Amino acid sequence: MAFETTTDEVISGVDLAGRTALVTGATTGLGLETARTLAGAGARVIVGSRTVEKGDAAVAAIRESVPDAELSHVQMDLADLASVRACTDQVATQSDVLHLLINNAGIMFTPEGRTVEGHELQYCTNHLVHFVLTNRLVPLLLAGAPSRVVC
Questions:
Q1: What does the pLDDT look like over 97-127, one tens digit per residue?
Q2: What pLDDT, in 10s, does the model give residues 44-97?
Q3: Residues 6+ positions from 19 with CB-CB distance below 8 Å
Q4: Is the separation of the CB atoms in 64 and 32 below 8 Å?
Q5: 5 exposure class (CB count in 10 Å sphere: 0-12, 13-18, 19+)
Q6: Cα(17)–Cα(85) distance, rounded to whole angstroms?
Q7: Which residues touch 108 (CB under 8 Å, ≥6 apart)?
Q8: Alpha-carbon distance 43 to 99, whole Å?
Q9: DSSP character at residue 26
Q10: Are 126 and 104 in contact (CB under 8 A)?
C-alpha cells in the first residue's frame, strides 16, 4: 500500500454482505468515502447526518457509484445529546445487529461555543457524543459480534 492507494484497493476482495455499518459524519469527506466503500463491499450502510437534506444527498451520491447499495440514513446532531439518543433509538428500530460503528464525525477550529446541554462544543462533538453513541449501541454491537468500533 502506498500514499496513492484508494479505498477500493484497500477493501478489494472483502465481502461485507450481511453486515450492517453506521458511519457518523457520512455526508462529506472521509465519512462519505468510508460509507461508499463499505456499501461497495456489500455492507448495509446507515449514513449518519446532521440534517435530512444532507443525508438524502449522501445516499444519492453513494448510489451514483454503488447503484444496488443497501442504504438508509439517520439524523443526528452531534452537538445535541438528545438528538444522539433519538438516533440510537431509531437505529435499534432499523436493525437488531450492528457490525461496524465508524465514529468519524468531528469538528475543529470552531469558535468557542456551548451545546444546548451546556457542554463545550468541540469536546461534546468530538468525544462525549461518540462515547454516548457507542455505549447506547453496545447491545447491537454485541448482537453483531464480532463487531468493530472505529473512532
A1: 999 999 999 888 888 899 889 999 899 888 9
A2: 999 999 999 999 999 999 999 999 999 999 999 988 999 999 999 999 999 999
A3: 42, 43, 44, 99, 100, 144
A4: no
A5: exposed
A6: 28
A7: 122, 126
A8: 9
A9: T
A10: no
Cβ atoms 54, 128 nearer than 8 A: no
Strand ranges of the sheet holding 44-49, from the earlier edge strand across to the other edge: 71-75, 44-49, 20-23, 100-102, 148-150
Nearest Cα to 133, choosing from 111, 109, 108, 150? 150
> What is the model's pLDDT at position 1?
63
Per-residue confidence at 4, pLDDT binned at 50, 70, 90?
A: confident
> Whole-angstrom Cα distance, residue 141 to residue 147?
6
Residue 31: the pLDDT is 96
Instruction: Map residue 120 onto helix, strand or coil.
Output: strand
Kind plus residue range of the DSSP H or E element containing 36: helix 29-40
pLDDT (0 to 100) of residue 18: 96
Residue at grid coordinates 447503484: 67
Q: How many CA atoms within 13 Å lie on the side-chain side of 104?
A: 23
